[in-house]
Design a protein that fits this description.
The protein is an alpha+beta fold. The protein contains three helices and seven strands, in the order E-H-H-E-E-E-E-E-E-H. It has a single domain, classed as 2-Layer Sandwich (Alpha-D-Glucose-1,6-Bisphosphate, Chain A, domain 4), CATH 3.30.530. The longest helix is centred in the C-terminal third of the chain and has 31 residues.
Length: about 140
C-alpha cells in the first residue's frame, strides 16, 4: 500500500485572513462552493473552524463513492479535515500571494496494494484534481464577490 495524493492551487484576490475564514466556514460558505460531486452534505457539530464535524458523500467516479465524516483542525494558515471512515486527509493551506492569497488543497490517503494500487495511484489523483479545481474556482468566486 502506498500513499496517494492530489493537490490543486488557485490565486484569490482577497486577504489571507478573509480566505482562511471562508475555508473554515462549514455552515455557510462550504455548501456554496462544493461541486456537483458532493452529496448529502451536513454539519454535525460546530460549523466554523476547529472542532467542526461535517459529513458528505463524494462521488469521485460513476462507481466510486466515498462516505466522509470529517473532523476539522485549524493550525496556523491551514484547515485540516480528517476522515473518520478512512485514511483520507485534506489540507487547505492559505498563504499570502502578492495582493491576495494562494489557496492549496492537498488530499492524501493510503491506497491499495498491487496492481489495483498502481492504477489508483496513477488515475485517482487526476480525477480528484478536477474536483479540487472546481471547488477552488467556486471558493474564488464566493470570496471575491
Amino acid at each position: 500500500m502506498g500513499q496517494v495524493s492530489a493537490a490543486s492551487t488557485i490565486l484569490v484576490n482577497a486577504e489571507p485572513a478573509t480566505v482562511l475564514s471562508a475555508v473554515a466556514d462549514y455552515r455557510d460558505v462550504r455548501p456554496k462552493i462544493l461541486s456537483s460531486h458532493y452529496h448529502d452534505y451536513k454539519v454535525l457539530e460546530g460549523g466554523q473552524g476547529q472542532g467542526t464535524v461535517a459529513s458528505w458523500n463524494l462521488q469521485a467516479t460513476k462507481s466510486r463513492v466515498r462516505d466522509i465524516k470529517a473532523t476539522v483542525d485549524v493550525a496556523g494558515h491551514a484547515v485540516i479535515e480528517k476522515d473518520a471512515n478512512s485514511t483520507l486527509v485534506t489540507n487547505w493551506t492559505v498563504a499570502p500571494a502578492g495582493p491576495g492569497s494562494s489557496v492549496t488543497v492537498t488530499t492524501t490517503w493510503t491506497g491499495a496494494g498491487g496492481v489495483k494500487g498502481f492504477f489508483e495511484k496513477t488515475f485517482a489523483p487526476l480525477g480528484l484534481k478536477k474536483i479540487q479545481a472546481e471547488v477552488l474556482a467556486n471558493l474564488k468566486r464566493e470570496v471575491e464577490n
